[in-house]
């Protein structure tokens, strides 16, 4: 069973608009990446408490913290970055989120990712160590140009760290943009680690992001396989239909709704049930 959630800052920077649009689509969770133009890693204690109050008042929960952790160069200062990570962990605790999305560090352009494997794994294991201490689960997203951008290196990270506190956030569009077939090539390698889905599709021809099922992300096959395995978890809308960049994306209210409606149609075609409760056991 799928529980719908989404990167609400793709709707608007304003929290009230984000929640109104999600509510209109029957979605009672959000993946918190930014509010009021501020990334979650830079929100003050007062802002976090204000967000928590607004969510509680309207009956919303945070499915994951959409953090920027690991979205720096592999040669950049990791100790400074760990300060942001501690801030993100605090946000997860304040907002009641079990999950935190992370990345595995940008590789210098034109260089062999394998040359940086040891440093990537050192950093990832340190993040996992903190996650285990803090009782949160890190979700590694397969972002383009980081170490774990293809299926083999994602598997390397997840297998080398080997922790229940590090799982995979599976993003079909990002795999397509790296020349990887999401269901045919990536899912068979990573399925035992997949605990969270990002709803984003793209085309091989130009890398352009499109609504779920309209690209080469093999979305129907993916969700059919998830249904057959009895998957219970979040599917997070990340449409990127108006703008897409290395650190954020934007769709606006209308295109976000279009993306949700298209995804619901795809789930109906597959026969995947959707959890309509405001609470989730995911």
UniProtKB/TrEMBL annotation:
Superkingdom field: Bacteria
Sequence ranges assigned to domain Xylose isomerase-like TIM barrel in this UniProt record: 22-240
The organism of origin for this protein: Sutcliffiella tianshenii
Xref: Pfam families: AP_endonuc_2
Protein name listed in UniProt: Sugar phosphate isomerase/epimerase
MF (Gene Ontology): isomerase activity
Keyword set includes Ion transport: no
Keywords: Isomerase
């Amino acid at each position: 069973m799928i529980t719908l959630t989404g990167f609400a800052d793709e709707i608007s920077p304003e929290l009230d608009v984000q929640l109104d649009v999600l509510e209109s689509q029957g979605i009672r969770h959000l993946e918190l990446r930014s509010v009021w133009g501020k990334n979650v890693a830079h929100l003050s204690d007062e802002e976090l408490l204000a967000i928590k109050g607004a969510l509680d008042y309207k009956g919303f929960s945070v499915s994951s913290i959409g953090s920027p952790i690991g979205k720096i160069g592999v040669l950049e200062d990791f100790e400074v970055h760990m300060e942001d990570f501690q801030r993100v962990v605090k946000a997860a605790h304040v907002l009641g989120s079990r999950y935190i999305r992370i990345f595995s560090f940008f590789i210098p352009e034109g260089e062999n990712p394998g040359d940086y494997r040891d440093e990537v794994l050192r950093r990832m294991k340190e993040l996992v160590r903190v996650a285990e201490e803090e009782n949160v689960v890190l979700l590694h997203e397969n972002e383009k140009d980081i170490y774990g951008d293809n299926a083999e290196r994602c598997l390397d990270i997840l297998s080398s760290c080997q922790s229940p506190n590090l799982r995979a956030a599976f993003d079909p569009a990002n795999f397509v943009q790296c020349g990887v077939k999401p269901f045919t090539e990536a899912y068979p390698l990573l399925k035992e680690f997949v605990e969270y889905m990002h709803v984003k599709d793209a085309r091989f021809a130009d890398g352009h992001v499109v609504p779920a099922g309209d690209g080469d992300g093999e979305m129907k096959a993916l969700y059919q396989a998830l249904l057959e395995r009895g998957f219970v978890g979040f599917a997070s809308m990340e449409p990127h239909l108006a703008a897409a960049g290395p650190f954020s994306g934007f769709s606006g209210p209308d295109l976000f709704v279009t993306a949700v409606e298209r995804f619901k149609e795809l789930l109906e075609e597959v026969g995947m049930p959707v959890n309509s409760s405001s609470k989730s056991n995911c």
